[in-house]
Structures are given as structure tokens and as C-alpha cells.
Amino acid sequence: MRAWLPTVLLASAVSAVAADRLPLTGKVTDSSGKPLEHATAMVYAAAVKVGSSIFCPTCYPDCGKRAFTDAAGAFTIPNLDPNLRFELLAIHDGYTPAFVSKVDPAQGPAKTAALAPRAPVEDPARVARGRVVDGHGLPVRDAVVEPWGVCAQGGCLYIPPIEGLEPMAVTNQKGEFELANAAPAMGMVVLVKPRGMAQKMVAMLTGAERQTIAVGDGAIVRGRLMDRGKPVAGAQVGIFPQTPGGFGGKLEISGDPYKEIAIGTKEDGSFLIPNVPAGVKWYVYGKMASIAERGATGSREVATAADGSEADVGDFEIQPGLRLRGVVTLSDGATIRAGSRAYLAGNPRCDSQEAALGRDGRFEFAGLAPGQYLVWAAVRGYALPGGEFDLKVNVEAGMSDLAIKLERRR
């Protein structure tokens, strides 16, 4: 992240003035519990404990802080914002890196990070080697590289976790990394996630040669969420590719296979999403779960141009929302179990709601924009007939009589 970093630093620093900053302690061991000396424990990402974050997870000033472990495997990272919850990354040469999530310094030491030993790989056909650089050709350190697929003679496997394929790598000071498969492979598809820069999905060939992967700052998507002319603070706005994409049989990447990016709105209703991959068409929308009581936005289309560019969706007005009511019944007449739920996903599908099922099977979703939705119910031991996972439902003027009948699983 480049041009917008000072604003983020200032705003986040102000939010932490009211409370004393805290140290975070923890340990790093190997998978057998033996302490690892001189391992790196780094704050990789952060999020607010309450409400919606107005910053990207790796944009907080505390992100990037690190400490080395002592002979007992212990580390201390001082002066962290007590209003935040952290994600730590533990790294040591000769071991597979590991994350420790939802770390709260106010709750005591972090959960111990146990790193699995990584044996040297001598067969170049098992390894994809890379070097991540920025737009100036300078190495990018601490970028997380996730394998999303591996192609061998028997075909390709996509979407992790994949048996025999290392789950993650992290670039060193030279920007270098390597990922190994248990057996020889033609290549891998990897997602490069540099902190404070845009993600990038790339296909890599295995072998002794190291492939250079250039990443950029990405673009900014900004706008303002409004409700009857007044700003909406503390809501969430999401963006998702219009062409989610996928993978083919020979290291082929189609479309834009990125996950949803979500951010919170500020007091004036504005939102700013940095480091958005450039050259992609996106849907922008108010997250249903955060604005359902007010109404719905539907989705708006926007395209990101080159790195450093901005895409402004303007004022995004919440409209009156529709309701969908229905009932789930079981083919054998049984009563719905406590804890059963109904789910609804919109366009894009990653934006969803969930609702508890009453003992009579009734449920309700609110704050819907007109359009098509996917609806399904989760009742232990039951499923839709014919192996279907969900129902396609058109909601144009509200609905109060959706019936979902589930059959006992065989």
C-alpha cells in the first residue's frame, strides 16, 4: 500500500489514544512441542473487536510488527492497540509457516504456534519456485503464497487443502519462496497475498528455474452509503468479481477468481477499499447482514483500471427492503431440531443471510433487493430431494409462502 497509507495510519492512531497499549506474548514450537529459537512472530493482520473495520486487515499500524523467539521459543511484541484482535504469522527456516488467528492481547498469551518441519526438496519436478517483486523490481518480503491447485500427469486438483501439497509459503527478504508437492507435478496455481498490496493469482511451472511475479498496489474503490439522504456509519460494503472465474485442466485461469473484499463505513457513510486487483469488473453492494434492518442496496457495477487508479461509485442509497418468509417441513413429520437454520444467498452469492428455524420450521429474511436468490435449510440428517443443494427463488415484491420440504438422508 502506498499513497493512502498516511491517512490510515493517522485515523487508526487516533482511535487508540484512549486506551493503554498492550504487549502480546506467545510461543513458537515445532510439531512435537520443542521450542524454536529465533523464529519470527509477526502481526500479519488486524480487525476491530466490535463493529465493522473501516480499514483493510493489513492496513493497521500494528501490522508488520515482529519479534524473534528466545531459547524457550517465547516472544513479546510490545505496544499493540487494545481495541484490535490480531492474526499472527510464525516463520522459521526449515519449517512450514503457520497462522494463529483471533489473538487478543487483553486475554493473555497467544495460542502456541506449532510449525511442521519442512524437509529439503531435491527433485525440481516437485517444486515451484518464485520471486515476488513490486512495480520497481524490488523484492516484496512477507508475502503469503497460497497454493490453489496442482497439475500432474493424472490431471489437476483445485481449491485447497490438497493432499500432498504444502499449504503455504512466505517470501523471504529477497522476495523468494518455494512450494513443494509430494509427487512430481507439471505446475501449480498460486495466490500471492502481499501485505498492503493487491493480490495476484498466477500459474507457475515446477522446476529449478525461479519465476518472477510482479505485484502492484492495486486500485481504490470508494463511495458513500446513504439512507434517505443521511450517511450510514458502521455498515459493511462488499465487492466481488462479476466474473468469479475458475481453473482449467492445464494450469489455466479463467475470469477473476478472487474472494470477496469487505470494508466498514465511516461516520460520514464513506468507504474506501484499497489494494483492489486492477483490470477487474466488480459488483459493489451493501452487505445484507449489516443493513437488513434499514433496507437493501442491490449491487452496482464498477471496474478497476490501472494500479493507483480510483473507482468512485458515488452515493449508494439504501432502498426499502423486501421480506421473504417460508417454512421448512420434514418428510417424516418430525419436529425441527433446535439450532437448525435457513440460509439465503444473493447476487453475488458470497453475500448471504442466515435465520434460525422455529420449532414449527418457520423463517424470515428481511432487507432484500428485488432479484433472484438461493435459499437452503440446514437440518441435521435431512436434505432436499434429488441431491439438490438449494432452491432458486425470485423475489420481486416480497414472499410469504416459500415451502421447503426436506427428506431424511439415506
Summed up, the helix count is: 2
- Global structural class: mainly beta
The residue-averaged pLDDT reads 92
CATH-level-2 architecture of the largest domain: Sandwich
Q: What is the beta-strand fraction?
A: over 45%
Sheet of most strands: 5 strands, antiparallel
Note the overall shape: globular
CA-to-CA gap between the ends? Answer: 52 Å
**CATH topology-level fold name of the largest domain:** Immunoglobulin-like
The share of residues in helices is under 10%
- The figure for the number of domains is 4
Number of strands: 33
Cα Rg: 23 Å
* Highest CATH level, the class of the largest domain: Mainly Beta
Contiguous uncertain segments of 5+ residues = 1-18
Characterise this structure.
4% of the residues lie in helices and 47% in strands. By secondary structure, the chain is mainly β. The chain folds into four domains: 5-115, Carboxypeptidase-like, regulatory domain (Immunoglobulin-like, Sandwich), CATH 2.60.40; 124-214, Carboxypeptidase-like, regulatory domain (Immunoglobulin-like); 219-317, Sandwich (Immunoglobulin-like); 322-408, Sandwich (Immunoglobulin-like), CATH 2.60.40.1120. The longest helix has 11 residues, at 5-15.
